[in-house]
Amino acid sequence: MPEIKGKKANWLKIESFIMKGRAFIALIFVLIIFTIIVPNFVNSTNLVVMTKHVAIYATLAIGMTFVILTGGIDLSVGSIAGLCAMMAGGFINEGITIGSNTFYPSVPMVLILTMAIGTFCGIINGFIIAKFNVAAFIATLGMWYVARGFAQIRSNGLTFPNLVGRPELGNTGFPLLGAGSFLGVSYSIWIMLAFMLASIFITRKLPFGRHVYAIGGNEKAARMSGVSIDKTKIGVYAISGFCSSVVGLIIASQLVASHPMTGDSYEMTAIAAVVLGGASLSGGIGSIGGTVIGAFVIGILSDGLVMAGVSSFWQQVAKGIVIVFAVIIDQVQRRLQERVSLSQQVEEKENA
Amino acid sequence: MKKSLLFIVVLALVLSSVAAVSAAESKGLIYVITPSHSNPFFGSEAEIAVAKAEELGYTTKSVVHDDDANKQMELFETAIAEGAKAIILDNAGADATVSAVQKAKDAGIPTFLIDREISEEGIAAAQIVSNNYQGASMVAEYFVELMEEEGTYIELTGRDTDTNAHVRSQGYHDVIDEYTDMKMIAQDTANWDQTEAFEKMETMLQANPDVKGVICGNDTMALGAKAALDAAGKKDVIVMGFDGSDDVIQSIKDGGIKATGLQPVAAISIAAVEQADYYLTNGKFEKEEKQSIDCVLINAENACMYAKFAPIEGVTSCD
Prior knowledge:
heterodimer, A: mainly alpha, ABC transporter involved in vitamin B12 uptake, BtuC, two-stranded antiparallel ribbon, two-stranded antiparallel sheet, globular, B: alpha/beta, Rossmann fold, 2 domains, 6-stranded parallel beta sheet, 43% helix, elongated
């Protein structure tokens, strides 16, 4: 009875299609719920504000996606963001002292230096993981402590206030990064978009991107086929560190102050966004686009729950349920895919 | 699949029932933003402000920033986008909060600060705090009295980034340091945290087993320290806190902790909401920006007269 089997296979295909777009479905789902229960939820101001909040988590999560695609994890992103915020704040308010000379770098210089520091932290992570064969969880947990420690050492636990710079030192303009906008859309959103497009290009078109997937899919096979495992691993952690530094800069700029606890526990939000976006923590499966949608789900959920007046304790419960629920769907999808390919094989056999 | 659909429906129902808010005939929306309610001090503070605002005919939203200045900024932006009329704020850092309050001001929304100040004046509509220095001096005087003006003591201070931690410590020392026989043998921060205070106290006891008194920057740390002392069998050590939380008041009644400085949280929250209402009704500010309200010393003699950071109506003695 090939006819019935064909219908069944089609139904399975539809089911599996729905499952593949689960982050997108979750996004539509939270949007609909909040549109119903929160008056004024969907208006342009509110959507821009929410996207701005999402941009911070999405930028972290994009870096995290590279790491997770290789089967690794980066717990240090929040701490690196905090360290970078403090370094940038220090450069602006206290300058750089070498010996008895103090000079104040201009704002573009501050940005470049800070991003270099974040990237360097990432490279250290990658180096330790690749060269000393330390588990990613442990290596980045170490960096989680070290970076947070240095962030507090930098100012002895205090906040660098009022990061506006001084005209006579030529270092004004830092708050523009967080407050400025282009075509009515904040810079942080443009940055997220630019990172997203660049990362999609890297993962789809460049050899580096294919190596990232290859390592996550099967590290031994990748090594056999000549992929430079160490370089690729160091590369992904460097990208993650770079994204963290940009997030640290954006937060410090928005607040016009840098606080040593900036970015505390943001790594969890980033990981959740990546997983919601369809990535597998064991590596090899996932996409940048999915991650960004995942970040939107979490961001809209956070802001929507606030606007709906849900108490903060219930907010945590709701977020936890959504994340775990998404991963359950992930497992269901895997099984469905197996069934689809099985039934296709059966069909082909019977047709033959 | 059917099960997952069912799950989605249930989640939707839960969310919508939790959030059922009627906006009919409201005088507008007031946002109450505080640190996490896991510390009862902030929980009461928010609860009292919400109750007062609703009594005056406003709708309210009570949200927490978890001492994360970035999250606080996000909450401010959400409040602005939602068209809030006023914000009552216990902030996430004196310096890191300035830009958020400025942003609200630019959007025409006044922010009434409670409990903690910010580092600039002229941006917030009001900064209403308890007189931490007066409260700390008062607790310190009682501490010296119970210590009989001599002996060793340990101080647990609050989070270094918080101005109140320094003001209270200053208040303690300006009094205690006058007495040359009072010797501080250890001082460390426990970051306002109960667990951290417990662990630090245990460690400090190893080095200083004969300590006579412990003075803490807040009540949660005092409870943590007291638990560690009790566990070590040192029930006679004199412990004092600051805040006046119900847990510590209970401990005072039970003869555990000796005293605390009660912050007039209820008075502060109510004053902030009333001043917000005055501004929204009359278009001008009722009082000058910086205001402080005195603390009250709570000890075994008056502990039963206070609850929820306010005097209990009709109770005038503990006999």
